[in-house]
Design a protein that fits this description.
- By secondary structure, this protein is mainly alpha-helical.
- The protein has one domain.
- The chain contains 9 helices and no strands.
- Helix 2 packs antiparallel against helix 3.
């Protein structure tokens, strides 16, 4: 039916058809707080959890369950007397494995499809990305020492009046079994657990909503804070500051590859160099 002569065609097309009302137009979606999440690194699907939920997951799975509950029980069961006891290495292994287990329970139970969202890619690409990450981790260690640790050492020396050194992260007088356990913890267990949480969960909760730099800096700062070791303030601050920049660098590797396998390999290589130097110096 042609439009009435006194009504423009556009108005006719926008009106009822054949006397029937037009279907209602659905309302525009309301953006989530902080913006709708966009795609992740290398086009990975956006994660569904917020930064606040990622923090709660870290506190509950690590601090409350793994450290307060499981690690405290391990301290008693192993007869560990204090933090200087070499057997604390075993407690560290138990605590990190417990943290990994509790995180996996949360991911499998409440985050369906989490592997695809975080980007745990194996096969030929996984091998290629792991090689890239491992070489990156080996190169990262001297880069951090020269470009970050050296100027930070000078800064904290100026502020404190004494030369800072990074505090020892391992107990003294380790026997062969304890030294082996410390290597397993540093090179195998900690890289998997820490990359899954700090990059896969925490970094992505911010990065997908606010961009790479917000995610990398905030997650890097938290990564540095959790590496606190009791020591003179300048020594503790030196270690934590170094770990902040290390966390940012690891986030960059994740951004470049879009595969957490690359990050785990980089973290393994970085820690392998560090613990080899620690044990060799003894």
């Amino acid at each position: 039916m042609p439009p009435p002569p006194d009504e423009p065609a556009s108005a006719f097309l926008a009106g009822p058809i054949g006397g029937l009302p037009m279907p209602p137009v659905p309302p525009a979606p309301v953006p989530a707080l902080g913006g709708l999440p966009g795609p992740g690194p290398k086009g990975l699907p956006a994660v569904g959890w917020s930064f606040g939920r990622a923090l709660v997951v870290g506190v509950v799975t690590n601090l409350l369950l793994a450290q307060v509950l499981v690690a405290a029980f391990a301290f008693i069961a192993l007869g560990v007397r204090n933090a200087e006891d070499p057997a604390t290495v075993y407690v560290g292994v138990i605590g990190d494995l417990a943290w990994l287990g509790f995180m996996l329970i949360w991911l499998f139970r409440w985050q369906p499809g989490w592997r695809d969202r975080i980007g745990i890619i194996t096969g030929r690409r996984g091998v290629r990305d792991a090689g890239f990450g491992f070489v990156g981790g080996l190169l990262l260690y001297p880069l951090i020492v020269l470009a970050i640790a050296a100027p930070l050492t000078y800064l904290f020396q100026t502020l404190s009046g004494s030369e800072p050194t990074t505090p020892d992260q391992l107990p003294q007088h380790l026997n062969a079994a304890q030294a082996f356990a410390s290597v397993v913890l540093a090179v195998l267990i900690a890289p998997v657990v820490e990359e899954l949480y700090f990059r896969g969960v925490l970094f992505r909760s911010l990065r997908d909503r606010h961009g790479f730099w917000v995610g990398a800096i905030v997650s890097g700062v938290i990564f540095g804070l959790v590496h606190y070791v009791p020591a003179p303030w300048q020594d503790s601050m030196l270690l934590q500051s170094i770990m902040v920049f290390t966390g940012i660098a690891l986030a960059w590797i994740y951004e470049r590859r879009g595969n957490l396998v690359a990050n785990v390999a980089a973290h393994m290589a970085f820690n392998a160099v560090g613990i080899a130097l620690i044990l060799w110096a003894r």
